[in-house]
Amino acid sequence: MEKSQILETIRRMAATNDGKAPGSQKFESETGATKADWYPKYWLRWGDAIREAGCAPNTFTKSYDDEFLIQKYVQLTRELGRFPIEGDLIVKRRVDKTFPNRESFRRLGTKSERAAKIIEYCSAREGFEDVIPLVNEPIDARLPELDGTSDKPAAGYVYLLKHGSRREYKIGRTYNPMRREGEIAVELPLPLDPIHVIKTDDPVGI
């Protein structure tokens, strides 16, 4: 898209949304224009595009305390029946604007650190016995890292993902399928559906 087209589209989308300018992900999902269409050719930040279009920059979500974030994690864990990945946080935010955005949860640390805090929270309270096994599972199944400390080849994975309801699939290789799924989900407007994962010591060959 040309710069003038992007600016006009931002204005049009804002006009149909009570004056609220679209975020970069919403803009991409509705227009098909990716970040590469505007960065760094026209702007270094999406907020700069919003300002040039004559719209007020979107305000950021307020800061939440750790307990509130943990409660939201517990809620989503129960809904999914498993420990959420990054993509789950994004999808939940899209359908429920009261749910904190993905950036808010970073204050809880890495995935394993978040899990540890949730287990500690649930263990100190009654009524959360169903959550602890769901959180423990990804910790127990944590994949080996490529640290060079083992003589055995590190286990890798070949995965097949489906993109939303479309007939679009992605095949790839990774050493951490859960993390990779979350990374891909950030880039796509529709939810991902994991189809199959193969564990192998030769992901490149497979």
Description:
It is a single chain. This protein is of the alpha+beta class and 206 residues long. 42% of the residues lie in helices and 11% in strands. The chain has helices at 3-15, 24-31, 46-52, 66-80, 86-95, 111-123, 131-140, 177-187; strands at 156-163, 169-174, 192-200. A hairpin with a 5-residue loop joins strand 1 and strand 2 (169-174). Helix 4 (66-80) crosses helix 6, helix 5 packs parallel to helix 8 (177-187) and helix 6 runs antiparallel to helix 7 (131-140). The longest helix is centred in the middle third of the chain and has 15 residues, at 66-80. The two termini are 38 Å apart.
Q: Give the amount of beta strand, in percent.
A: 5-15%
Give the number of helices: 8
Q: Structural class, from secondary structure content?
A: alpha+beta
Q: How many DSSP-defined strands? A: 3
Query: For the CA atoms, what is the radius of gyration?
Result: 20 Å
For the largest sheet, list the strands in their spatial order: 2-1-3
Q: What is the arithmetic mean of pLDDT?
A: 81
Shape, per Cα inertia axes: globular
How many structural domains are formed by the residues?
3
Head-to-tail CA distance between termini: 38 Å
Largest sheet geometry: 3 strands, antiparallel
Low-confidence stretches: 139-153
Helix content: 40-55%
Task: Give the H and E element order.
Answer: HHHHHHHEEHE
